[in-house]
């Protein structure tokens, strides 16, 4: 790891900067002035174990297309507020659904340019199917990998997982699907009918982790592209 711990606030003077990488450093925070880099398109923050905070007005990086961060519990706490304002985003390592003043899943609906992989955490904070549908996942044809994750340690008395997952129906171009800590008694219709053309006919991998309340497995026999099935804790 590098010994760099601080970026100078004067970095904001680099008005034409489009690419910034501070990976593998001991940087603890990004200066607030970085939000003045209106032309910044790529920000890489990989392997930064000391990074504890992102600028409060991160949403002002209106040209940002690619954000790279490690997908771990500590970095998920840094989820920028109002990330839905960054409508140019194509690469996002994860999306954390917040409570109350945190990021709401409807902000995903504003990020129509996302592509590649998308991992969504804390789905227990989504209240119902209608709210989940505001994420507009069914309209995003460029996401090939989706991970749906609920917190394992939560009150099951307020379980609405079936309703929420029904509203998270993805686009048929999806190739990899992971569902983790889902506590519904049954999978929603779009999961149970995966084998019906044309929905999810491109699926190559499906992973079901700790979905131990489900009493029935989805039918997969007609998914001709399917190569990997992982079932853990059912």
Automatic annotation (TrEMBL):
Which organism does this record belong to?
A: Davidia involucrata
User: From which domain of life does this come?
Assistant: Eukaryota
The segment(s) forming the R13L1/DRL21-like LRR repeat region domain are 105-234
According to UniProt, the name of this protein is Putative Cc-nbs-lrr resistance protein
Return the InterPro entries for the record.
LRR_dom_sf (IPR032675), LRR_R13L1-DRL21 (IPR056789)
